[in-house]
Amino acid sequence: QAQLVESGGDLVQPGGSLRLSCTASGLTFNTYNMNWYRQVPGNERELVAHITSNGYSTDYADSVKGRFTISRDNSKNKVDLQMNSLKPEDTAKYYCNARNYYFDIWGQGTQVTVSS
pLDDT-based confidence at 96, cuts 50/70/90? Predict the structure, then answer.
């Protein structure tokens, strides 16, 4: 059964950094585009970062451009999100998503809280 497990969420002060990781199992990882989404209660889930299946192309929400970096290691079935210069408005639950033509798979999420 396909599964995504996120880790790395924490409480961090404004201006700090965190690295989120998502490890996949039960799927052919290198056939999936990978995404990080985030959601605040009461709001819609927001796409934060995207990386293609081969890792050659990335895209970011305007709100995180220049601060966040998505990367993947297909040999380890892993995708990371490096988050720098964190702001209180980055506080949310972050979800890993794997998507291809046939399947759309979600992790359970990891909480990121940016507060002094």
Answer: very high
